[in-house]
Structures are given as C-alpha cells and as structure tokens.
Specification:
With 381 residues, this protein is of the alpha+beta class. Helices cover 56% and strands 15% of the residues. The protein has a three-stranded antiparallel β-sheet. Helix 3 runs parallel beside helix 7. The chain is globular and about 75 Å long. The two termini are 42 Å apart. The structure holds zinc ion. Residues 220, 230, 249, 253-255 line the site of zinc ion (ZN).
Length: 381
C-alpha cells in the first residue's frame, strides 16, 4: 500500500513528531527561565522586604514588592516566548518544504527534485505567520497569550509561597509545580498544531501551482480523540476553488485534505459514502468501488485505552495506549454508528449522554450536531 492517502498520513505523523521535538525545545527554554525567575525573586525580596514573615510586612513594602515582581516576571517571560519564535519558524519552514515536496511527488508521480524547495519561499513563511489563524488567533498571538497566562500563574504561585511562608526550596518547588506545569501540555498541543497548519498551507500552495487538482477530500482520524465537529466533515468532498474549512480547525486537530486529480464517481443509489459539494444543497453519493479506485483504501480505526499518569511533580496527564485497531472504508459517522451496536460506551464517551441518546435513537445525525464549525449546545438540539 502506497497510496496518496498513506503518503499524506505518513507525512502528517512526521509533522506531529517534528511538533513534539519543537515543543521539547520550547519546554527547555521555559524551564531555563524559571531558574532565572527564582533567582531574581530572591533578589527582589531582599530589596523590598524587611522581615522573613509576609504578614509582618508593612503594606507599602508588600505593594512595592508585588508590583516589581510582576513587572520582572512579565519581562522575563516575554523575552522567553519571543525567543521561541525562531525555532517555530525554522520548524515551520522544514515542514513546508517537506509538504511541498510531497505535493510535487503526488502530482508528478516522481520524487521531487530539490525537496520541494522551489515551492517554498521566505514570503510563504511570512504569509503563513501573518495570515493563518488557529481558533481565531495568529501564531504570535498564541505565543503572547501563553506568555501572559504563564506570567499570571507564576505570579500567583509566588504570592502563595509568601503567604504560606515557604522556604526558598519550597518556594522553588511550588513555582515549578504550579507556575509552568499547566503551560507545558499546551506547548506540545500548539507546536503540533502550528506545524500542521504550516504543512497544510505549503501543501495547498504547491498543489495550487502544480495544477490539476479537481477537489479535496476531508479526512479526520478514526479514533476516540477526534471531536464530532471534525468527525462530521470526514469523507466530505470539496471541489477545488469552492469554500472549505481551513485546517487545522482547532488546537490538536489532526484532519488532512486528500487531493483528487479526477472527479470521484458519484453513485445515486449508495448513500454510504457521501461527499459534500459546496454549491448544491444536498449531499452527493459516492460509489465505494470508485472510492477505492480513486485511491481511498481502507484506513485504520483505533480505540485507545486511557490511563492517568501521576508525575513526580504532582501534575497528571492522560496516556493513550492503542487498545484495538481495525481497517475500514467507513467514514467517521458510519464508523461511530456501527460502534452504537458494538461498543455503545465508546460512543457515549465521545458524544456525552444527551447527544448519545439522540444519536442512538436516530433522532440526530453527526452533521446536525454541528453548526458553523462548532458543536451545538444541548439546548439547541
Ligand atoms: Zn480536525
């Protein structure tokens, strides 16, 4: 098996891995500044505070110290997140070259000469940074947002230590546990999402200049971590030049577009595989035989076993282990419908109680749960 779909999924995994290593780098940068913050906090305390006990300090000193501490933390973090931009840009550029090379090899059937670099220009990187949003925010706005949120947490943790009368060592530990532990998982999610965004951007630009694409098939991942919003789009077809959702749709979205160079054959009698045509109101039907011939072979559907990992610093994270894998030509919605019979608890864990009951009773389809790219509220159902 070496279909377009396989190549695109394989590349998406490489992008994910690159995102994780980028986040490793960002995490080290963040941990580095924490040492600096701890050292400077001690200096500020020596400058502003007179006694060892916080409740014995006069109001004026407390106020001056807290103000100086916040200014200091904010400045250090701003510099830190600023320093994360070049590695993000480097990784994005790498990923863009890879995505363009893949687009070239898919379009021409040959390995790209020059690794697709001819399709990636510094302008493209700049265009991506300045125009592409994830959940409405540009890359730099995300970094700014994380910087502010982390500064708040660090300032709060520092104040707690004062009130609790922590020793220097206890205060340092408290800061590590509460100051940045919440930011670290976000770094990983964002790094992966940023790079997937860069990859999609370059891929689409390369396909655009290579020409010959008839349309795009939206593919989500068949597993329990895919949200119903993305699931509802799975398998839909968007003719080239017609509006379609830009990917990634949200932080941690793993959806991809598969380019089709010839129109998929529609079959009026088979409702199974449905493709969305942007300018007709209904769904067009797609023949399964043709689907396979057009390069959409079965793909893996995975169920994960979840477990909670308790880390030494007191934080927790969720670990996913592959529980079962099967290969299917179903789209997400069909796959989920089958799970109603085979594994209803799984469906319930994805949809939640109310949506699950409605879905099970056949009262609502996955598509109907989503409006304007968001999940309808229970009251809207
Ligand atoms: Zn998605």
């Amino acid at each position: 098996m070496n279909t377009i779909q396989d190549k695109i999924f394989k590349f998406a995994h490489r992008v994910e891995a690159r995102g994780n290593s980028l986040a490793d780098e960002m995490r080290r940068t963040l941990e580095g500044v924490l040492g600096e913050i701890i050292a400077q906090t001690a200096k500020l305390q020596a400058t502003y505070l007179m006694t060892e006990k916080w409740d014995k300090e006069v109001y004026k000193r407390k106020y001056a110290y807290l103000k100086a501490q916040r200014v200091n933390v904010e400045a250090l973090l701003e510099g830190t997140f600023e320093a994360m931009r070049p590695p993000v840009e480097d990784a994005a550029f790498d990923v863009m070259e890879g995505a363009a090379a893949l687009a070239e090899s898919i379009s021409t059937g040959k390995i790209a000469i020059g690794g697709g670099a001819s399709y990636v220009t510094p302008t493209m990187l700049e265009d991506w940074i300045t125009t592409q949003t994830i959940e409405g925010l540009l890359i730099n706005e995300w970094l700014q947002k994380m910087s502010t949120a982390t500064a708040d947490k660090i300032v709060i943790a520092g104040r707690e230590s004062l009130v609790l009368g922590h020793s220097a060592q206890q205060a340092a530990n408290h800061l590590r546990e509460n100051g940045i532990s919440g930011t670290v998982p976000k770094l990983y999610a964002l790094a992966r999402t940023f790079l997937l965004s860069a990859s999609n951007y370059a891929s689409e630009a390369a396909f655009e200049s290579l020409g010959g694409v008839h349309g795009w098939e939206y593919l989500a991942t068949l597993d329990g971590r895919t949200c119903p919003i993305c699931g509802a789009y799975d398998g839909k077809y968007f003719p080239h030049g017609k509006p379609r959702p830009s990917l990634p749709q949200h932080v941690n979205c793993r959806c991809v577009y598969i380019p089709h160079h010839s129109p998929p054959k529609f079959h009026p009698d088979k409702p199974e595989h449905r493709l969305y045509d942007g300018d007709t109101e209904g769904y067009l039907k797609w023949d399964i035989e043709q689907t396979t011939r057009n390069g959409i072979p079965p793909r893996p559907a995975v169920k994960h076993d979840e477990s909670t990992v308790h880390h030494r610093d007191g934080s927790t994270s969720t670990k996913y282990k592959v529980g079962s894998v099967e290969h299917t030509t179903e789209n997400y919605s069909q796959w989920l419908k089958r799970q109603l019979r085979e594994d209803p608890a799984f469906v319930r864990s994805i949809l939640g109680k109310t949506r699950f009951e409605l879905f099970k009773a056949g009262k609502i389809s996955l598509e109907k749960m989503v409006v304007d790219g968001r999940l309808k509220k229970i009251s809207e159902l």
